[in-house]
Amino acid sequence: MSEKSRLTEEELEFILGDEPVKVEAQNSSGFEVFKSTIESSVSQIAQSYASKIGEEMAITVASVEQGMEPSIEEPSPPYYIASGTFTNNGNVASYLVYPLKTSQELVQKSTGVENIGESEDQISEPLKEIAEGHLVALAEHIKEGFVGIIDSVTKQEDLSTLKNDSGIVKVHYTIGTEHIYHFFDTAILNFFENESAKITQDRKKEPEFLQELPSKPDTLEESLLGLSGDTSAQTPPAASDDFSSFFNSAETKSAPSSSTDADDPFASLSESLGKPAGQAARVEFADLGGQPSSKEKSPIDFLMDVSMEVAVELGRTKKRVNEILELGRGAIIELNKLAGEPLDIMVNQKLIAKGEVVVIDEHFGIRVVEIISQNEREHSVS
After folding, report:
1. Would you place residue 361 in the very low, low, confident or very high pLDDT band (cuts 50, 70, 90)?
2. What per-residue string of b and e applies to 222-255 under the rule 16 or more CB within 10 Å gives b?
3. What are residue 66's DSSP bridge partners?
4. Nearest alpha-carbon partner for 130 in 108, 157, 158
5. pLDDT digits (tens, 9 = 90+) for 23-38
6. DSSP-derived secondary structure for 85-122
7. Which of 25, 226, 254, 277 could in theory staple to 199 by disulfide, Cβ–Cβ 3.0 to 4.6 A?
């Protein structure tokens, strides 16, 4: 085995080792990381409510704040408060506050019972199940061992029991035209404060020989053109530089030995080929050209105004004919996608990216989280 074919000690440790490494990351404060996490969890929380009440409802984050006391500008009491804990190696007090009108609407939709009153007998149990879905969706989004637990749902006239001397973190959601408030003890920020300084990722450290591999494309244009994130290494050198270095090296290696050679620099080449010097033909090099000028258009520029159909695929499944014929209103079709799994973004029925659902001004949208590379796209087609 040659020296070049031997694996280095670093390469062997990468292949055989199983120790995760900690990757340093520079983030903002713990509160900012918490706020960003809450805002990015909206789509999963919306899905949890949709599964409980049987219809889609637009949920947005109106505000995320810190304070010493839980305050609600609107609406007026009474409130139904789902008390519990949000845990990750320790308990953090969690309170989901539903104004009466919001509670009645959610319970009515989830149970199908009309004219829901104000009594706890009608509201507490159904609302507890809905609130648990909210916490579970948030915990699954964070994916750091968090578990949401609802201990009880009670009707209260004020929020005095939620006061905490160490401070409160308040999240204000709007769900349709109604409001939901989520209060945490500020101890919740301790976890995110640690994350803002150091994020632990269970992945192996890449040795230098892997760092030379092409990176994943950052944009769809790079993916379509087969480029990696850094295109500087793909720029060919100017043709004039190549030829000048070639002729300069040729001159230093062999100087003309006679006046004939000086008059005809191809004489020595002709002699080596066994041909008379007079019959040697000069080599004609094709003009390879340099970099296109900034005024020249790239081939893809001519396609910029072409319309293409963009679709987001929630999932697929296969059914037999008899199963299709049995479908009716209210039937549920199970798809091949898991809850929380990124959705496929298709352009002209070709997979080009993956994303997650977001809600923008009561409209659904899709946030791109991954661009499919050219190799992956070709593999999916084959």
Report:
1. confident
2. bbbeebbeeeeeeeeeeeeeeeeeeeeeeeeeee
3. 169
4. 108
5. 333 334 788 889 989 9
6. EEESSS--EEEEEEEHHHHHHHHHHHH--SS--S-HHH
7. 25
Nearest Cα to Cα of residue 344 among 318, 376, 366: 366
The pair of structure tokens assigned to 67 is: 């304070």
Instruction: Please give the C-alpha separations between residue 365 and each of 38, 56, 175, 318, 362, in angstroms, as whole numbers.
Output: 17, 14, 17, 27, 10
Whole-number Cα distances in Å, 204 to 15, 197, 242: 9, 20, 41
How would you label 15-39 residue by residue, b for 16+ Cβ within 10 Å and e otherwise? eeeeeeeeeeeeeeebbebbbebbe
Give mean pLDDT, residues 135-140.
90
Q: Which residue has the tokens 């790079």?
A: 222
Cα–Cα distance, 100 to 123 (Å, whole number): 9
Answer whether 340's CB lies under 8 Å from 365's CB: no
pLDDT tens digits for range 287-330 = 555 555 555 666 777 778 888 899 998 888 998 999 899 888 88
Q: Which two tokens stand for residue 193?
A: 């404060």
